[in-house]
Task: inverse folding
């Protein structure tokens, strides 16, 4: 029994040490405050990343290394004409992880429509971050967009309850209070500063142990409707579009309520019968390839009469 007890204690100590070490490695970070933007972004410091996770983390550091200008987003695609602009929201799919600048959704859409396009997609983010950006105000050069297009993927309903991913520190999180969405203060999200607690919460959330799927869907509806309200206030002539790239069943569950609120819904399956989860339309990690956008954009512009 003594040997068993000793083994258990040693295992607990080792696991605890590994957890704390992981937190240490992932959160010894360099912080950049960009007051012309809308949030605080963080970057892993090479001084505190060790093998075997260093290469994995460096993949995401590319996101920050490439964003030393332009408020940490993809470069704005500016066209000097009188056509109304387009603003894109979303996650790494919209941002274009794994793609060169000339292969991204924003660059291709701008070239195809001859319009200015502003890519506000951020890897690891979701509906809550989009709402925050619209609520707090976009950059002043965005005057009067014709469309705000939000690319939805299935994982976004989980991100509503997970305000930051492991490679950035965007603690943007809304809670319901008196049937309204209320932005939480940073200290309300203290547990998200721990990679270990964050990972545990993610696994429980994905397993549906914290919030049911139905509750997540209704929470998603509130975020989308609130985004529409903010767009209507700040850009009354603009239209809000949800492009369901994946997770179509989530959007279909609230389609009636969204359309009643004048949110336009476009399903990827309505644009093409191709399987965008496989090559050549998906990269190795599942993100859209340049070819995927080549197929999607012409059909999308037809739906939007661009």
Result:
């Amino acid at each position: 029994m003594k040997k068993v007890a000793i083994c258990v204690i040693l295992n607990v100590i080792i696991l605890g040490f590994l957890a704390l070490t992981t937190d240490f490695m992932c959160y010894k970070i360099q912080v950049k405050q960009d007051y012309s933007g809308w949030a605080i972004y963080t970057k892993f410091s090479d001084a505190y990343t060790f093998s075997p996770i260093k290469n994995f983390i460096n993949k995401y550091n590319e996101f920050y290394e490439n964003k030393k200008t332009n408020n940490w987003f993809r470069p704005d695609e500016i066209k000097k004409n009188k056509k109304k602009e387009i603003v894109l929201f979303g996650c790494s799919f919209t941002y274009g992880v794994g793609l060169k600048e000339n292969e991204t959704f924003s660059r291709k859409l701008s070239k195809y429509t001859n319009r200015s396009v502003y890519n506000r997609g951020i890897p690891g983010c979701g509906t809550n971050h989009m709402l925050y950006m619209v609520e707090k105000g976009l950059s002043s050069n965005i005057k009067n967009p014709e469309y705000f297009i939000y690319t939805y993927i299935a994982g976004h309903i989980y991100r509503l309850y997970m305000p930051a991913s492991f490679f950035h520190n965007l603690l943007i999180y809304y809670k319901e209070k008196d049937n309204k969405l209320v932005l939480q203060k940073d200290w309300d999200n203290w547990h998200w500063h721990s990679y270990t607690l964050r990972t545990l919460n993610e696994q429980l959330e994905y397993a549906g142990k914290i919030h049911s799927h139905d509750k997540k869907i209704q929470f998603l509806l509130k975020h989308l409707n609130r985004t529409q309200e903010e767009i209507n206030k700040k850009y009354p002539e603009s239209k809000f579009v949800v492009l369901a790239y994946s997770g179509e069943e989530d959007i279909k569950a609230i389609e009636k309520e969204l359309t009643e609120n004048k949110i336009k819904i476009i399903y990827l399956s309505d644009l093409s019968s191709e399987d965008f989860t496989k090559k050549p339309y998906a990269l190795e990690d599942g993100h859209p390839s340049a070819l995927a956008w080549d197929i999607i954009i012409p059909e999308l512009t037809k739906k939007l009469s661009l």
Remarks:
- The chain has one domain: 56-304.
- The beta strands are 29-33, 40-44, 86-90, 117-121, 147-152, 174-177, 180-183, 239-244, 264-267.
- The radius of gyration is 21 Å.
